[in-house]
Design brief:
This protein is of the alpha/beta class. The mean pLDDT is 97.
Amino acid sequence: MFKSQIDWIQENQAAENIVYVAHVGDIVENGDNPNYANSEWSYAKDIMYGLENPVSIPYGIAVGNHDQTPFGNAIYGTTTNYNKYFGVKHFEGRPYYGGNYGINNDSHYDLFTAGGFNFIVVYIEYDGFDQNWEDLNNWAYDVLSQHSSRKGIIVSHYIMGNNSITGSNEGTPGTLRPQGQAIYDRVKSLPNVFMMLCGHILGNGEGYREDTYKGNTIRTFLSNYQGRENGGNGRMRLYRFLVNENKLAIKTYSPYTNEYETDGDSQFTVNDIFN
C-alpha cells in the first residue's frame, strides 16, 4: 500500500502538477526498537526514496510518536533511524531544504514555489509530554517570521481530533489537542500562516477546523486512515490549489484500490484559502 502511494505520486507528478509531498508522521511502527528497526526503516527508506528518482519531488516527513523510542519522548527519546535515513545530511544541499532545529532533523522546514506563490512548510516534532513545546514553537515562529512573504504551512503529527460527525464537516469540528493548541497559540498572530496538517488520531481519522485571529484564518486538516478497514487501504490526501479562484480542493484517494472517498469530510472545497 505504501509503495502504491509513492508510485502513484511519481507516475502522476506531471499530470497532476504535484509540487510537494508531506508525510504527517509515523513512517514506521516501532521507532528505534532493535527487534523491528532494521526491516521497518529499510522499507520506509526504499519507498520514500522513490520520490527522488526518476523525478525528484520535494518532500518532508514529520516525526510521529512511533518514529521515537520511547514513543512521544521528544527530549530523552531517540530518533536515530529517522535521522539516519531522513536527517540533515540526506536533505542538505537540495534546493527546497530550508534548515533544521537543534542538532537533528526532527523539526525542520522546506521552501518551494508553485502557482505564482512562495511557500514555507515547517515540521514540528511530536512531543507527547510538553518537554520542549516552548522552544519548538518559538523556533517555528521565528522561521515563519523570517519568511513572512511566504505562505506558511505547519505539519505536526498530533494537532487536532476527529470531526464530531463522521463523513461530514458539519457539526462540532475536532478540537485542537494540547500540542496543537500550543502551536496555534504561538503562530496565530502571523498573517502568512494559513494551513496546518496532522495525523495520529484513529477512528474515522478525518477532521477539519477553522480558527481566526485578528482577521487571519488558519485551517487545520486531519487525515489518518490506519484505523479503517485493512489499515486504511492506502488512502491519502490530495490538496489542489486553485490559485486563480483562491480555493483549495481536497480529495481523498487510494492508489491501492483506485477509489476516491467522496463523503463530506473527504472531498470538499475551502474558499478564500489565502484570506
